[in-house]
UniProtKB/TrEMBL annotation:
Compartments where located: Cell membrane
Keyword entries, A-Z: Cell membrane, Membrane, Transmembrane, Transmembrane helix, Transport
Coiled coil: none
Topology with respect to the bilayer: Multi-pass membrane protein
Domain (ABC3 transporter permease C-terminal): residue spans on this chain: 61-179
Primary location class: membrane
BP term (GO), one: transmembrane transport
Protein name: ABC3 transporter permease C-terminal domain-containing protein
InterPro entries linked to this entry: ABC-4_Integral_Memb_Prot, ABC3_permease_C, ABC_permease_BceB-typ
Amino acid sequence: MLLKLSISGIKARLRDYLVLFSGLLVASGIFYMFESLASNKAFLEANTTVSYVVIIFRLGSVLLAIITFVYILYANSFLLNMRQKEYGMFLMLGAKVKKIAQLIFLETFLVGFLATLMGSLVGIALTKGVSLILINQLQLSLTHFQPVSPKALLETIVFFSILFFLAAVFNAQQIRKKTLLSLLKDGSTPAPGKRNLFGLLLQSLIGIGLLAAGYYLMSDLVRFQIAGIFGALFTILGGTFLIFHALLLVFVNGLKNRPNVAFRRLNNFTLSQLNFRLQDYSRVLSLVAMLFALALGALTVGIGFKNDIMKITKQSTAYDLVLNNSQAVSAGELSKLDITKEATYQQKSDGTTLYYNQADFDQEPLLITDYGVKGYQRVSGEELVKDLNKQDELRNLETPERQALNLQILSPSDFAALNLPTTELKVIQVKDFADSIPQLKKLVKINEKNNPGLNSEQGYTQRVVVYELFNSFYSGFEFMGFFLGIAFLTMLASCLMFKILSGASQDIQRYQMLQKIGARQKLLKGSIKKELGLLFLAPGIVGAIHVLFGLKMFTTLLQNPYNGIVLPFALFGIIYAGYYLLTVKLYEKIVLPPLKK
């Protein structure tokens, strides 16, 4: 009987439950996506060489579990508030409190368990789809990644089942404690206590000071090291909370005290709404801002690592291709490359010494990487004769057996006088390295075949080999950054959405009163957009500022951590705006029902 009542109750408010259900479905899907990574030890170890990466990702999994728990609390609050009056009506009609508690337990657990099962299936599809997009579109090089993980599936189902079991018990206990009158008057909320302006200003200044201290610590982690990380964590957490607990309230009150702003349209009502609820929202807004920073930071740093691959590759070696004994390579293979610069250096060897013709280097100087300046250094034949260090740069382009020989740069006449067979060392630069990678890889294989003692693990003189090395290393970071970013962004936006919606029932009477005295729907909807806009925009701005200062921490790992920052900011802005618009629509449906005639 209780099961039938639970199902009928869900059917009666199917639209509201679908909102909750979809949010829980996304939450469990994202959780599965992350667990499929965290539990895939072979993938993590194969795609990054960072020490203890599995442990680090496990810690990330714990963090996501905590965030998910907070998310469930807000979603659960939304579920309870949505039907509180109905439960009160059941009690008025003679239903026992024990039976109502059992009914709530069944509804909560049933919705949560079904959402978890479907969310896990969605998570498998998302994991597969996102991995294919990242691998194909971003040209990532990943190994041992399996989107279907029985262990991750089991962990997701068990974790969410436990969460919803606890939530169902909590809801049942809450109903047992509440009186009939409190259930029927669930929209009544006590007014906030009188606030001290001086205290708010003092808290605001302390919050700004804590943020400044945290940003300073992050800007010089080479100096502060581990102490700087923990110091920045605590100061930024404290500063963020005080910004929302005090400074934002001071800002709203400042607008409220300006007649040209407050008395325009329904601004006074909107500002009063914000003033009424801001301190109650300070914790969730702080959480959202920190999660926003973590999500955006993870994605930005991941993209930053990817952007650095080509830069590091070009700095590691001056040439796109080096061909030893190039006379054995057919002209047809080389014609497939769009060559912008090509140099051929003649060689002769007597088994102990390797001889070069100085005229070849005078005609086309050797390019060597100069780490002290931007670009490459041109080395003439005369410089090679005098500078042994620069001869070593030339030696590095040779096969292993020839690197062990003595090296001499001879004049054209002395070189011609040697009665030894002539071989060639050819170096090439192409117009577009990225587009030429397939053909370059093919020519590297041909070069290894023509020189049996040579393989790609010796010397890293081939740019395509260096590229593949760093691509394999950094692709893992980018892949993880995308998953972390998506997971955190979805959770934070959902937490804020359900926090707002869980209190929407308390605003119904206020909006109905405005409707009855003649306020137009357009003005009421505009007021809602402004109110929710500030609640979404404020943590987004604070989180973005955290990221802009936090990227300073990665200056030792990335050449320019701010390079390409527009893409992740734009992507997050679009997704975040989508959650805002969804919340506005749902909120309007709750607080602006059609007036009864």
